[in-house]
Design brief:
little secondary structure
């Protein structure tokens, strides 16, 4: 059933970056991290993918990003106070919860 997604990982689609969108964000990488061009490149180390069983008998795909996490710059910033968040939500009528 996963063979339907093989074209997502095609070499030709990895040769150029997708169009920029307003919601794009970046992940800061350490200076000695191999990719410098900003596109997909093969790495000698991978992030293993495997499937774990769910309660309903289906499988959930999970990926181990510990290797890549070693190359990212930690983004340390203070968390807002709850009182500040509540003040920002005053007058709002619609809320969304995502898992």
């Amino acid at each position: 059933e996963y063979w339907d997604y093989l074209d997502v990982f095609s070499k030709s689609k990895s040769e150029h970056m997708p169009l920029r969108k307003p919601w794009d964000h970046g992940i800061d990488l350490k200076e000695d991290f191999p990719p410098k061009k900003g596109r997909l490149i093969p790495l000698s180390q991978t992030s293993p993918v495997f499937f774990v069983p769910k309660k309903d008998g289906k499988k959930r795909m999970v990926q181990d990003y510990r290797y890549l996490n070693e190359w990212t710059v930690k983004n340390n910033y203070p968390l807002p106070l709850i009182s500040q968040l509540v003040d920002k939500l005053k007058g709002c009528k619609l809320f969304t919860k995502m898992d």
